[in-house]
Amino acid sequence: MIKDFFRRIKRVIDFLPTIWKGYDFDFYYSIELFKHQLERQAKFFESSKSYRQDSLHQASRIRTVIKLMDIVYNEKYHDETNATMERIYGQQRFEFIENKDIGMYSLDIRWEKAMDDEHNEAIMKLWSDQMKFAANKTKRAHGILWRMVEHNIKNWWD
What we know:
By secondary structure, the chain is mainly alpha-helical. The chain has one domain (about 1-155). It has helices at about 1-20, 25-45, 55-75, 75-90, 115-150, and strands at about 90-100, 105-110. It has a two-stranded antiparallel sheet with strand order 1-2. The longest helix has about 35 residues, at about 115-150. The chain is elongated, with a radius of gyration of 23 Å.
């Protein structure tokens, strides 16, 4: 009983940093909490403490789900697209342009290596198309992620 008490205290301490950073108004922190628990389970299945014959296989599936969570919720595909575009066309900068007719400002994105307005528009069209493609990849990865969780979660026990 004493050993179990200290195991639970250690577990609470392990979760504390994840819980401390969380907020109740943002689903991302729920994902981080779930991901932290999955990390713990994967480590357990990879250890000598697991009784399962297929524990390494289950740990591998859990690690795949964790990688998909990182891809989907850290917007990896969008970041890759932006990095590629910035490598080719330079940094983006945001400019506020005043429309004197209506007395308002609009936001314009300018690319560092754009030669003129027409070239900037062409870059923006390409960027927009690439971001739509990244959004579709993210959506597919999101579906795969949660189908994997649904299909496997009942096997993640020892």
